[in-house]
Design goal:
Length: 114
Amino acid sequence: MELRRVRPDVAPGTSVLLYASSPTMKLVGRAEVAEVKVAPTSQIWREHGRETGISQSEYIDYFEGLDDAVAIKLVNIRRLDKPRPLQDLRRSIAGFQPPQSYRYLNRTEVSALV
């Protein structure tokens, strides 16, 4: 489960590219959105806490001040055979900057990166 404070404009079936931030700084995989769920923070933790990869205290800190949490279920998760380093991504798309949380890409950009 991918957690977000704000619901991104994605629908089930949307392809997702997975970028690992510092110190890795590489495009490492891809996945598909199966479901986007918005619910009270306590409900998301109760139903999906074990699938988040973080502790309950980290979860509480992340959603501090919010009533609802966003949980994005990813399926068909695949590692790239050859992860793409940031400098390589920048050669493929001029001025490419990895997003702080997420970024929408068009088909041409996806083709250039994967």
